[in-house]
Amino acid sequence: MADPPAALRPYVRRYAGWYEHMATPRCRREPPSDEAPLVINFGTPIRLHHLVQTHRYDDLDSFIAGAYDTCQLVGSAGPSCATCSAVPSKT
Question: Residue 64 domain-assigned?
Answer without folding.
Answer: yes
